[in-house]
Amino acid sequence: MLLVYLLFLMIVPLTAILLLLWFITKKKIFGKIAGWYWIGFLLFVVFLCILDVFTSKKKIEKEDIYGDYIIDREKFPGKQADWQYNHYRYSITKDNKMYFYITNKEKIVKTIKGTIKLNNYANPRIELFFEDPKFHIIEEDPTLYREIWSFYYVFYSNKYQNVFFKKGSWKSID
Fold first, then answer.
1. Residue extents of the structural domains in the chain
2. pTM over 0.85
């Protein structure tokens, strides 16, 4: 945006000079040049606005956090991601409850219940509170990563290292 302001500060005096020359010399070319400068400037601003829509990372609101999460098999595809996909998922409810599911494909084997606290940063971050027993994936608070159209969470596990979760509904991959 600084570039837009600098261009604007350059075009205004230039336009004033061109309009003054047009008024003094009565040659229309100076008015046309000033007009083309302004058309170019406005097209440049429109281009920057469109570019911003397609390159800015998603702004995450509190409402975006609630829902079901599954293993993101696209970050590190392979057998390990497929296995994790079939064995872990979680849900966050609007009353700030978190249910971490240990599964065997579609069957939920164990549910670990906890609560979350949404911290008020530019993008809400979740802080986890679970009763014992602790489970290695949810021992630490996850990190939120934003992309252009979506976001995902990364949990640290002492068994798997980084475990990637994205919003979505579980579907069989067999």
1. 2-55, 62-167
2. no
